[in-house]
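Input.
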Amino acid sequence: MRKLYIAGNWKMNKGLMETRVFVQRVVPEINKQDLGNVIPLIAPAYPFLEEALRESFSSALQVAAQDVSYHSEGAYTGEVSAQMLASMELKYCIVGHSERRQYHNETDAMVKARMLKLFEHNITPIVCIGETLAQREEGKTEEVIINQLNGCLEGIKLIKGTEIIIAYEPVWAIGTGENATPWQAQEVHKLIRNWLKNNYGETVANELSILYGGSIKPANLKELLEGEDIDGGLIGGASLKEEDFLEMVKIAVASKGEKC
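Output.
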């Protein structure tokens, strides 16, 4: 049964006290729920990962980093290594987000290098892929997605399907208020699932969770989750409010929490 993730990517938002208060408020509510196969997750800014981990200790709420260096250690000012994340017993890390690709010129090869460092320390990468508006309008969505999958996963061994999580984030729908229709999202998720099947086999394709990201909020989450191949969301702005985050966790549990 595939895991269903409600993953909040906080980006460059929330300070120390805001992080502490958020976690203190949501953990008791999450602990009241029978989550089934739903995994609530937040990705705070680097300085506050330890605080989030401390406040969520022994709860169902998981914590992820927003990025990681592809260097192991050394003179790389400002970088944070996978070994450092592992020293905090972190279990998840986002790699290849479109904002990293756009603002920091990250390539598929660099995303792959980050994944390999995370694998060395048993941290699960949340691998982001997605097309721009221009690429979609030119009818290149399938080509872009396949190229990104090939580039990020070339030579990567997947056996169980739980080694990574894939997040499909159409760049044109991130932070814009626009989102892919449920049909558009499902269409690309099915494309990714079929690619996994062709390249890794039925087991990996059936077990690997594929999230949708792009202006998700409580009002549209249920309809998106009706897609057979959509296994939750990588959520930006709506994950910053405790009530919205908790509502989305409840929607996930009610709509798909007991199904694969």
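Residues 4-256 form a domain with the TIM Barrel fold (CATH 3.20.20.70).
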